[in-house]
Amino acid sequence: MHITVVGTGYVGLVAGAGLADFGLHVVCVDKIKEKIDLLNNGIIPFYEPGLKELVDRNVANGRLSFSTDLDQAIRSSLVIFIAVGTPSRDDGSVDLSYVEEVAQYIGGCIDDYKVVVTKSTVPVGTNRRIKEIIDGKCSGGAFVDVVSNPEFLREGSAVEDFMRPNRVVIGSDSPKALAIVKDIYRPLYLIETPFVITNLETAEMIKYASNAFLATKISFINEVANLCEKVGADVHHVAKAMGLDKRIGPKFLHPGPGFGGSCFPKDTMAFASLGMTHSMPLKIVEAVIDVNNRQKMRSVEKVREILNGKPKGKTVSILGLSFKPNTSDIREAPSIVLVSSLLKDGMKINVYDPAAIKEFKSIFKDKISYCNDPYEASTGADVAVIVTEWNEFRNLDLERLKGLMNSPNMVDLRNVYDPEKTRSLGFNYIGVGRGNS
Ligand SMILES: NC(=O)c1ccc[n+]([C@@H]2O[C@H](COP(=O)([O-])OP(=O)(O)OC[C@H]3O[C@@H](n4cnc5c(N)ncnc54)[C@H](O)[C@@H]3O)[C@@H](O)[C@H]2O)c1
Question: Which domains does the chain have, with CATH numbers?
Answer without folding.
Answer: 2-198 (3.40.50.720), 233-430 (3.40.50.720)
